[in-house]
Each structure stands twice: as structure tokens, then as C-alpha cells.
Amino acid sequence: MELRFESSLFIVYFLGLILIPIWNKVRKSKGNWLLYELGWFLACLIFYLLSLEVKSRTYFIGIPLVFLGIFLFRYFKEKRRLSNGLLFNLFLISFGGYLGLLAITTQDPLLILFLVTLFIGLLLLLLVGLYAIIIFLYWNALIVWRKEGHSLANLLTLFLAIGLTGLLVLDYVSGHFLPQWMASLFAIVPMILIYFAIVFYNFLTISIIYQFNRPKYTQDYIIVLGAGLIEGKRVPPLLGNRIEKAIRFYNKQKEKTAKTPKLVMSGGKGDDEHLAEGLAMKQYAVEKGIPETDILVEANSVNTLENMRFSKEVMEEDFGGNGYQAIFTTNNFHLFRAGLFARQASLKANGIGAKTAFYFLPNAFLREFAAILLMRKRRHAMFCAAIVLLNVLLALLQLLTSSLAAG
């Protein structure tokens, strides 16, 4: 009976794998069908796990469900929180613990095989992951160097690759040639890097989750966040992608609900620019067929926070109050940080992200992460100071112990 159930589930699962891309092609969807495949796999896995729970009369699934419930409650209450990334990762950790507990309890061969495969994959990732990351970062730095120029902001992946290479050398030297107390002092650097790696992972988690915003087609305004202009007067491809994203939403909303939103082009005039970014963006949108009457311009902001604050003022003046609905568009790597600034400006708006060339994403996310760190620099400085203090105390203790032993 159990074999028949498992066989039937596998047949249904593989049928889904085959039919999903066909269904996606028939409906002419531009969405990523791999996400549907992942969703289908998770649905079948959860169904199988629930069947094991029923047979063994256990309720272990309640453990990860509690963490998932906490994450979902906090996320839908306010999506623009960095702590949401930590909450989601706590759910993943609890789900992993749940799988292990269920495997021990039920001794199910398929679940054990799945966990062993997963464990081997994670082990290989730990063994070669850092080396693979370093090689990838050097390769990516070379691509960005060739395509985007040699500015400091475009060299972040190169700096990180060099730093990680130095870390490997430092780890080898401290482990083979230094006394234990001195090795504890040298451990300060890798421990701080591990701390920032965890912070980055949480940031990356919520940044990816935030990409899945699906705003309702009931918006009154779509804010387009500005960026620099080419030769001080022309819209570059990066900014053009933001405007195109807003135009697609604009047209889709008109098609679905007949409610026409207004585009708010937000961007001031830089020192090296001939006109305000907002005006250049308006001209770009008009050339794409958007009526001038559907475009508002905010031409005073010089950063993302001011984009949000001044756009809010423009919308309130145009709407005659604050009861409007609004979203904003920017590039996908900038989406979550822009959401943080919208929250800081008391603007109730979430964003939709325009696609960015893959080769540019690692450098762009590192730049975003650096900006996120600066937003909460006092908190991170306190954690780093605590790591330094603990390691210095440990080194002093080890030095004292070794001196007493030698005496």
C-alpha cells in the first residue's frame, strides 16, 4: 500500500515537471517557469511529509510552521524590514531540523535518502564553496572592468576577492606558524567577516523575497526613481529600464482596470547635468507614448531618500491629500533599500524592480549592502567591538596560561 502511494506521488510529480513548461508556453507567460517547478516540488514534498506525519501520528511540522507564521505575520505587516530576512532564515533552519527529526522518528528511506543527498551537497559547498566564490568574484570583476569602467564603485567584487584570498593566507599562517594566543588575535578578522557574511545573507534573502511584490492594479501613482544621465542630458539604459518597467505597469493597469495612474519622474539636476533627471525621464516617457498629462515631475531630489520625500509632497499636492495608492520602480538590486527609504520617508509604497544584466548584479548588491551597513553603522560597530574584545581577552587568557605552564 505504501509503495503504491509513493509510486503514485512520483508519477504525479513527474507529470507536473513535464506539464508546467508546456502550460507556461501555452499561456505565453514571461514569468520564470523554474519558479513554478520549484513550487511544485515543494508542494509534493510537503504532501509527502504530511503523509509521514499522519502515519507516525506526530506533529513535528508545527515547529517550522510557527517560525513560518511569525515571518509571514511580520512580512505582510511591513515588508520593508531587514529583520524579515533573519526570520525567514530561522524558518529554514527550523525546517531543516524538522526534516532530521522526522527522518529519525519514521526511518523513512526516501526521506533519509533526500537528507543524505542534501547533506552531501552542503558538505561539498562548504569544502569548495569559498574557493568557488573567490574564482567567481575575480571573473566577475574582470567582466565589470571591461564593460562598466574602472570607477571605485565598480571594483567591489575585485576588492572582496582580494580580501578573501588574503583571509585564506592569514588562516594558513595563523594555523601553522603562530602560537595559540596570537592565533586568537588573528582570528578577529575572519570572525568579523563571518558576522558580516551572516548579515549579508539575511540582506540578500529579504532582497530576493522582496522582488516578488505583485502590486494590485489600483495605483494612483507610479514613482520612477532617477539615476545619472549620459552626458548630463540623455537617459542611460539603467534608468531606461526603470522607466520601461513603470510604463509596462501603467499600460497593464489601464488594460485591466481602465484606471490610469500617473507617472512621477523623480530626480534633480546634478552638478554635471544640463537638466534635471526628472525632465529627461519625462521626455523619454513621452517618446514612448505616455501623455504629458499623465506625468508629474519632481526635480529637486539628489538621493533616494529625497526621491521619496519630495515625490510624496508632489503626490499629496496633486491628489489633494494622502489617501492615494502608490508604488515605485527602480532596478531590482536597488529595490529593497529603496523600500527602506520609502519607509523612512513615511511613504506607504512598495516597489517593483526592473531587470539588470546578470554580470552587474554581484557588484551592485555589494554596493547596496555597503549602503545598508552605513545606515546602521553604530549597531555593526558594537558587534565588531564585542568580537575584538572577546578575542583579546581570550588571547590574554591563553598567554597567561602558557606563561604559568612554562613557569
TrEMBL record:
Annotated DUF218 domain residues: 220-359
UniProt keyword Membrane, yes or no: yes
Residue stretches spanning the membrane: 6-26, 33-52, 58-76, 85-104, 110-139, 151-170, 182-204, 381-400
Superkingdom as given in the UniProt entry: Bacteria
Key words, A-Z: Membrane, Transmembrane, Transmembrane helix
Pfam families per the UniProt record, alphabetical: DUF218
UniProt protein name: YdcF family protein
